[in-house]
Structures are given as C-alpha cells and as structure tokens.
Automatic annotation (TrEMBL):
Residues 1-22 are annotated as: Disordered. PROSITE patterns: SUBTILASE. Residues 1-21 have a biased composition (Polar residues). Signal peptide: none annotated. Belongs to the peptidase S8 family. This is Subtilisin. It comes from the Eukaryota.
C-alpha cells in the first residue's frame, strides 16, 4: 500500500512545446551552422546505451555496430 502523504495531485500544464518532430534537436544544437562550416562528423563513433535501438532503420543500417556487453574500468 501507498502512504497517502506521498500521493500528489496531477495538474494540467500549458507546455505547448512538443517533441513530436524527431529532428527538433538538429536546430537546437545549431547543426546546420556546423554542417555549413564543412564539419560533417565523418569517422565519429556514437554510442547509445539503450535496448530500443533498431539497427535496421534507414538512418543507421549502413553503419550500425551492435555489441552486447558492458565495460567496467
């Protein structure tokens, strides 16, 4: 059971920002300006620690490297 002192009421918000567009962060990090400067990220390895990665997605399939393991220095 849950102690009623820890139950909190939900309140509506006026947050009009939505992350429905999966590319919303591209502009937020000013990627177009970086690309215009000729920096394209060639050779960069990006890590994602997530069980929900679909390596067959068109944006990933040609460079996806799956490795199931962990690192503990």
């Amino acid at each position: 059971t849950m102690d009623e002192n820890f139950i909190q009421q939900d309140y509506p918000t006026n947050n009009k920002r939505t992350n429905a567009d999966p590319t919303w962060g591209v502009g937020a990090i000013q990627a177009p300006e970086v690309w215009a400067a000729g920096i394209r990220g060639a050779g960069v390895v990006v890590a994602d620690i997530d069980t929900g990665v679909r390596g067959t997605h068109e944006a990933l399939r040609d460079a996806f490297r799956e490795e199931n393991g962990w690192f503990d220095p």
